[in-house]
Amino acid sequence: MEDSREILKKIRRLELRTRGRVEAAFSGQYRSVFRGRGMNFEEVREYQPGDEVRTIEWNVTARFGEVRGEAYVKKFTEERELTVLLVVDVSGSGDFGSVNHSKRELAAEVACVLAFSAIRNNDKVGLLLFSDRVELYIPPMRGRRHALRIVREILFFEPKSRGTDLAGALERLNRVLHRRGVVFLFSDFQSNEFARQLGFTARRHDLVALPLVDPREETLPNVGTVRLEDAETGEIFEVATSSRPVREAYQKAVEERATALQREFRRQQVDSITLRTDRDWVPALQNFFKNRETRMGARI
Q: What is the domain extent for residue 166?
């Protein structure tokens, strides 16, 4: 385990590296594509030309309008405050990375950007780490120090288990997050039977899935017979990578799994951003914000 000074240095470097990207790449977009919980009643005032007829407050109009000859309307303001929850898979497969960093480190960097975007807009942000159990839950709060704690936990938390239970994590999320929030789900989705809970969560919250992908997991290199260990179960098995049918079957299975996952996201109306350890994540996030802005503008 690294000492506390080295941990603080890493977190500080990550904060500095991502701060510029928050300000330059996502300025204004975060606020425009994620809405608050609704509208708050502010006051009753006299009707003015152009006001919506449906905002007329009939009880007040009946009480005072007859005397003054005026109608009265309700004035509302948007409730901007959001509750953001970062849900991060810390199972054994997240430690894998064949390029510059692991899938978990990639998740931490993007989560850091989202956490600081939330804080800049005075939103609350919380964290749920899961393996085949909920490893840690930090309730949503505001403030820079709180966000730094969240980043520290994503980077350095040591899970008790290495398996994955995505359905269980989503079930816990829906128990602790009572009001509608924005949920960012970071995982490589190497879990079974989570579609039902995914759909339930998407109906209750604004759910954005962020699949984590490493290129070495997509293809088998031709390096002869090798012994591989499953990062989550510890199972060891031999694979004849020199066999073309074996390599082709593996790649086909990976492609089918990725296609099925995207199909499930579309079926459950879940937005998704694929994050790869071999590519800059900024364009992927920018495209997501741009497409979502366009889609929301078309609905108005």
A: 4-34+81-299
Alpha helices in the chain (DSSP H): 4-25, 29-33, 58-60, 66-68, 103-120, 144-156, 166-176, 195-204, 244-267, 282-299
Task: Count up the domains in the chain and report the number.
Answer: 2
Q: What SS3 state is found at 214? A: coil
Q: Measured between alpha carbons, how far is residue 1 from residues 37, 130, 203 in Å?
A: 41, 20, 40
Q: Which residues fall within 8 angstroms of residue 125, CB to CB, at 6 or more apart?
A: 84, 85, 86, 114, 115, 118, 119, 140, 141, 142, 146, 147, 150
Dig out the tokens for 190 from the structure: 């190497």
Residue from 41, 39, 44, 48 nearest 80 by CA = 39
Same domain, 157 and 252: yes
Residue keyed to tokens 């999320």: 173
Residues 290 and 253 in one domain: yes
CA nearest neighbour of 82 among 119, 52, 57: 119
pLDDT of amino acid 165: 93
Predicted confidence (pLDDT) per residue in 107-162, tens digit: 988 888 888 888 888 889 999 999 999 999 999 999 888 988 888 888 888 999 98
Same domain? 65 vs 13: no
- CA 193 distance to own-chain centroid: 20
Answer yes or no: are the C-beta atoms of 216 and 276 closer than 8 Å: no
